[in-house]
Amino acid sequence: MYTQAMDTAGKDADARKPVRSAEEAMLEARFDARIDDGAFIEAKDWMPEHYRKTLVRQISQHAHSEIVGMLPEGNWITRAPTLKRKAILLAKVQDEGGHGLYLYAAAETLGTSRDQMLEALHTGKAKYSSIFNYPTLTWADVGTIGWLVDGAAIMNQVPICRCSYAPYARAMVRICREESFHQRQGFESLLVMMQQGTEAQKAMVQDAVNRWWWPSVMMFGPPDDQSPNSAQSMRWGIKRVSNDELRQKFIDAAVEQAKVLGVTLPDPDLKWNEERQHHDYGRIDWDEFWRVIGGNGPCNRERLAARVKAWEDGAWVREAALAHAAKHEQTFKEAA
Amino acid sequence: MQASIDIASDAATQYLLRIGDTALILGQRLGEWTGHAPVLEEDIALANMALDLIGQARAVFSHAGAVEGRGHDEDQLAFLREERDYRNPTLVELPRGDFAFTVLRNAMAATFLRLLWTRLQASGDEELAAIAAKAVKEARYHQQHAADWVVRLGDGTEESRRRMLAALETLWPYAAELFADDAVDEAAAASGLGPRWSELKSDWQAQMAEVLGEAGLAVPAEAPFLSTGKRGVHSEHMGFILAEMQHLQRAYPGGVW
Amino acid sequence: MNDNVKPEGAEWPLWEVFVRTKAGLDHKHCGSLHAADAKMAIQMARDVYTRRQEGTSVWVVRADQIVASDPGDKDMYFDPMEDKVYRHPTFYKLPGSVDHM
User: Fold this and answer.
1) Mean pLDDT of A203-215
2) Neighbours of chain A (3+ CB pairs under 8 A)
3) What whole-number distance in Å separates Cα of residue A314 and Cα of residue A148?
4) Does residue B137 fall inside a structural domain?
5) Looking at residue B136, which CATH number applies to its domain?
6) Residue A1 binned pLDDT confidence (cut-offs 50, 70, 90)
7) To 5 degrees, how large is the angle CA A326–CA A329–CA A331?
8) Which residues of B16-37 are buried (b: 16+ CB within 10 A; e: fewer)?
9) Mean pLDDT, to the nearest integer, of B154-171?
10) Residue B81, in any domain of the structure
């Protein structure tokens, strides 16, 4: 679904070597010029090590977000209220798995492997979007995630379709094509409940919005003035639009959408600002954000445990498949 | 609390519900794997199969509602029956178990469904025949996927073989029910709606024997065990599936989703 | 050039996927996936890359079987092997004594 602005890279600031040879300096200057020209970088092109590392981290964490994101929604597949909703949810969660796969594939072009990336996820070294550390408590949460979380994700993802690193850009084009169905379906599900549903259903929707609004707003990452790595990412065409700009765009769109739904967004400070031509909004609780990113959100431990369990429980399956293939590769070779 | 609906007991409706329920409950079990499969590619594959099966269930239930003639739509049929009115064979309601259990059950069910859908393409009921024409392609793919996995796991490592043997021992006795005929089968055969399920037995056995053989697994001996899900007398697992599946429909009477 | 400690167990090989969406068109590279064998790779390619449209034809090729041309720039001499498509660590078979990297 989405990668949070992973400017929360923190400790990796020493990735830049202090002394570079004249050769490298020249290569980097040429690289920067290519970026400025709007050229695409492919897998085997020369690239600064910091560029490569930043991308591996960003792409793999984006991939992790997709697959962890399958859990809060997958939670409701067996309880979907109609066959149509069950089918839609299955398709959506399946898409998320597919998106994770495209992204792992893109990351692998840069010198890491699927297993290495999963190891980083499972040991807590790699992050995923904080939004998936919240629980899905009602059916309305599913629609709300589609509306707000996928909505935020789309806003983040569209600019990445122009990312300088081509395999990532291509994966994003594919993902964006598939993503719009996700947001529309979520919104539509809420609209039906709000317009045609019972009072109990409407209350369910409002309750879900109350719980998911602020976490969605936080999906865009820390404010620009607290995102030190953004500048370099922007320079290299990895990041195209700033956190705050995307966040504002999202809030402006959501306010209008909330009116259509007939729900109230839980921010008493939301107000149109005629001068700015944008909505002013209330103070974000960044303590909560850092707490959740740091592993202490409502569901962090469960999410990771579920992924680790699936991986460990599946080890014998993966081994068996390889063993079988090895046995039969021999026969195949002999037959050739 | 939303009350249950009353189902017509005519043979045609019952015959259709058996098929729809088989797809629905198997789809429900496969849907549980999403996010928990051994590898991401299998999360996608299993979700794909669940989606196909739910699609088949929807088509069959819509049609069954029309045949029944009481104005029941696909969701009322799927979500609002009493347990005793669900007609899936017990095989598909068993918990998903480990991956060996799941792929073996898939192989058994998909082999069966493919044979059934193939015959149903010639059904005197045009709507059912049309549903079958689409479903048979899906069943073929499900069968292939499941059979390939049975072979990989049966002929993989010591551990995978051990787990396949355990799965086989648990699952095999539930096959007998698939082919045990009753008045519903007789009526369907007589009216041209579809074959007696017993007619599929020898092909099913042959195809399963081939897969198990390739996997290096012996076909278990037949045990004097007969499950009774098709009659509406289910295992203890069915209650839990339905509690989960039906909850929202039951808890929000008049709800619009 | 690993970013993390090498994990336990062998990985399923990487396959590249090419799909022809319509008769008359070329196969187009659309991505990659991991599969244990060719049969699985084809099935998975179908599940993953042709979910929304009927691909008329799917090719899968083990990534390490693909031979690629030199990107063309003489200044690429930082890369040890120009003939593979990716920087993937498992593509490069090293002698056992140095394979820990």
Assistant:
1) 98
2) B, C
3) 33
4) yes
5) 1.20.1260.10
6) very low
7) 120
8) bbbbbbbbbbbbbbbbbbbbbb
9) 98
10) yes
* Beta partners for residue B205, in sequence order: none
| Residues of chain B contacting A94 with CB distance shorter than 8 Å | 34, 43-44, 47-48, 51
For residue C100, pLDDT over 80 is answered with no
d(CA C68, CA C29) in angstroms, rounded, equals 14
Task: Lowest mean pLDDT of A231-235, A310-314, A316-320, name the range.
Answer: A231-235
Do the Cβ atoms of B75 and A82 come within 8 Å? yes
Q: Report how far Cα A279 is from the mean position of its chain's Cα atoms.
A: 25
Single-letter residue type at A301: R
Residues B46-56: pLDDT tens digits? 999 999 999 99
Structural domains in chain B (count): 1
pLDDT tens digits for range B10-45: 999 999 999 999 999 999 999 999 999 999 999 999
Which of chain C's residues have a Cβ under 8 Å away from the Cβ of A321?
Answer: 12, 36-37, 40
Q: How close is the nearest chain B Cα to the Cα of C79, in Å?
A: 31
Contacts of B51 in chain A (CB under 8 A): 87, 90-91, 94
- Is B70 a residue whose pLDDT tops 70? yes
For residue A237, the SS3 value is: coil
Q: What is the ipTM of this complex?
A: 0.97
B16 is a domain residue: yes
- Residue B200: which domain range? 11-251
Per residue in A12-46, is it b (16+ CB within 10 Å) or e — as a string? eeeeeeeeeeeebeebbeebeebbeeeebbebbbb
Residue to test with chain C: of B30, B40, B41, most C Cβ within 10 A:
B41
Domain assignment of residue B3, yes or no: no
